Amino acid sequence: MSHKKVAILISGGGSNMVSLVESMTGDHPARPCLVLSNNADAGGLQKAAAAGIATAVVDHRPFKGDRAAFEEDLVKPILEAGADIVCLAGFMRVLTAGFVSQFQGRMLNIHPSLLPKYKGLHTHARAIEAGDAEHGCTVHEVTPALDDGPILGQARVPILPDDTPDELAARVLVQEHRLYPAVLRRYAAGDRSRLDLT
Length: 198
Ligand code: GRF
Prior knowledge:
Radius of gyration: 16 Å
Largest sheet: 8 strands, mixed
Strand content: 15-25%
Order of helices and strands: EHEHEHEHEHEEHE
Bound molecules: 5-O-phosphono-beta-D-ribofuranosylamine
CATH topology: Rossmann fold
Number of domains: 1
Number of helices: 6
């Protein structure tokens, strides 16, 4: 069986990337082919290299906001690696419709909220501020609209009375590391049904 090839895009520590990489073994239908970052200092790059995975960096800063020009360089290592699936994992750049259209239907993202609630940033603080009883994470297909594509999976955590945003984020992150690998395994096998982890 030929494995699906997965490129993972990161901007920071890459804990979700590590979870995805560690899950792609044995009878898993996919294997990592590239870890790509917009940040040369992203801690996840060392972790990927240590795992023997090809890495690449395309720094967004020289492009000074010219998103299309940045993405013209960003897409090259993904195509060169022959990726079948792209996973955004703590990737902190907004992608244009032009980039997304090249991968729509085979690009996933994990977002730290129970979408459609709290698209965008600072999701943990916003959930606490709103007085929500629960929070969580969502894996969705990437479409041109930010944090908006078809939901492929969710995991929930309680918000505790004196939670700080960091404490809540840490509780959600544990679930991210369960959810993303579980969704990717199904997705790579062609199963796009929604998974709600308990
Ligand atoms: C996580 O909260 C994830 O939901 C968000 O980026 C944060 C850091 O992710 N997308 P990672 O540790 O770099 O995977």
